[in-house]
Amino acid sequence: MLAERGAVVLCGGYSGVMAAVAAGAKGAGGTVVGVLSRDDREGANPDLTVVIPTGMGEARNSVLVDSGDAVIVVGGSWGTLSEVALAMRKGRVPVVQLGGWRVSDGRGQAVEGVFYAADPAEALELTGLWR
């Protein structure tokens, strides 16, 4: 859906959700940039258009968060949670969460600026970029 709207899609560039994102965007004729944690291309998803080996480990999540016009995180691994935290600390709101983590403050209240989407179409709507 992102590629269909002309967006360049950034992801971590490996397997799992990252592979699904890359395959979907490539299948729609889009450009997919993989920002890798390793300092080489080993394990990079074959559906990536551009591969950027950083050698930064999980710190590459900061590059991902800083490089996009919108932050949509999918699923719930620890790396995904770090992307939510980085985006919030850097003021990159709204942050759209599709599945996975539910971020709350110390009192169990939702954190302002994190929006939860029920499906990909709602995630795109919540970014405010395609209205």
From TrEMBL:
Listed GO CC annotations: cytosol
SUPFAM superfamilies on file: MCP/YpsA-like
Pfam families named in the record: LDcluster4 (PF18306)
InterPro entries the UniProt entry points to: LDcluster4 (IPR041164), LOG_family_nucleotidases (IPR052341)
Protein name: TIGR00725 family protein
Naturally occurring in which organism (per UniProt): Sinosporangium siamense
